[in-house]
Amino acid sequence: MFVAWRDLRFARGRFLLIGSVVALITVLVGFLAGLTGGLAAQNVSAVLALPGDRLVLQQPSGGQPSFSTSRIGREARADWRASAGVERAVPVGILQGRAVAGADADADAGSGSGSGSGAGSGRAPVPEPGSAVGVALFGLPASDDGAVARFAPGRDGDVGLSAGAAHDLGVRAGDRIEIAGATFTVATVGGDLWYSHTPVVTMTPAAWSQADRRLGGDGEPTALAVTGKPDWAAVADRTHTSAATPIGSLTALETFRSEIGSLGLMIVMLFGVSALVVGAFFTVWTMQRAGDVAVLKALGASTPSLVRDALGQALVVLVLGIGVGTALVVGLGALAGGALPFLLSPLTTLVPGAAMALLGLAGAAVALRTVTVADPLTALGSNR
């Protein structure tokens, strides 16, 4: 690394430019990864928080399971519960609808929630009386298994609101809201859970079934959350259903597939651009150093030592550039978190940074042909 350090000190402007470009690409990749993670969380966080080892959905003939069309009938539910190895099969109803909070609901309850703020947080003004908010209605029994079930209500006349639903409706525990023409009391306000970019409202299975019928459905649950170790494939085939882990079932959300597919493609393209840019910079650098490398070879330097020197120099530039870019992502992500669905975690900061370093080194390695083929005779003037 002796030559590499001297070159870094001598050509500070050149490597500052390379490091700046690497930092900028890291910011682009990291910010897009954080935005993708935030959008994904607002799409599927409630599904991942459901109880059970696997989620059972209706398997259409010749098609892919979908949360929007799945219905688990009584016979299929009974078959799953009676299957060997099944410890528990919890029916889960999922329906997108609208909730209303306003003067009428407050008058029925006598709670005067119009003076409160979202979930008691004071983050935003209360909506106008009678304003409707799109919500995801989850019908399931209350239990300690899964974040969604933990704030599910115990009575048919109650509902549990996620933090986002309580904020958007401008209500708190004890207030009244209207869903599908029926009035409910807010029993609890739970975590920040979302389904297809709408905040979650939990209901009892009976209340959910009635709401589904009022909205034109058949009242049958959407899925089964199954716990145990049955022969998943055999039972699923017998009941014409599919059984997948919560993560594996995310492909049954159409919005998730389209959204993650497009954003993931952009991230992959940015990774490819980063490898090309870094490789192009180091290609030019090695071409300019061809004479110096030939002199070093004439003095006895081995090709592996020169390759290590060049890759070490590239690694220093990449680490500094990626470090600055990651710090900017963390800072900008913390600022944008209040206005955008941005997920700040090691998955959206450290993982893209590590991938950038590996791709950058790969690009720099491609540019090392000038080092490996440099002729010592060039330094001795044989071509003059």
Computed structural class: alpha+beta
Oligomer: single chain
Number of strands: 10
Which strand-content bin applies to the residues?
Answer: 15-25%
What is the residue-mean pLDDT, rounded to a whole number?
82
* Rg of Cα set: 29 Å
Uncertain stretches of 5 or more adjacent residues: 105-127
Helix content: 40-55%
Short summary:
By secondary structure, the chain is an alpha+beta fold. It has helices at residues 2-10, 12-48, 74-82, 103-109, 147-150, 163-169, 205-214, 232-239, 254-288, 290-298, 303-336, 346-366, 369-372, 376-379, and strands at residues 54-58, 86-101, 131-139, 158-161, 176-179, 182-189, 194-195, 198-203, 223-228, 241-244. Helix 2 packs across helix 12 (346-366), helix 9 packs parallel to helix 12 and helix 11 runs antiparallel to helix 12 (346-366).
What does this structure look like?
- The chain has 384 residues and is of the alpha+beta class.
- Helices cover 52% and strands 17% of the residues.
- The chain has helices at 2-10, 12-48, 74-82, 103-109, 147-150, 163-169, 205-214, 232-239, 254-288, 290-298, 303-336, 346-366, 369-372, 376-379, and strands at residues 54-58, 86-101, 131-139, 158-161, 176-179, 182-189, 194-195, 198-203, 223-228, 241-244.
- Strand 5 (176-179) and strand 6 form a beta hairpin.
- The longest helix is centred in the N-terminal third of the chain and has 37 residues, at 12-48.
- 41% of the residues are buried.
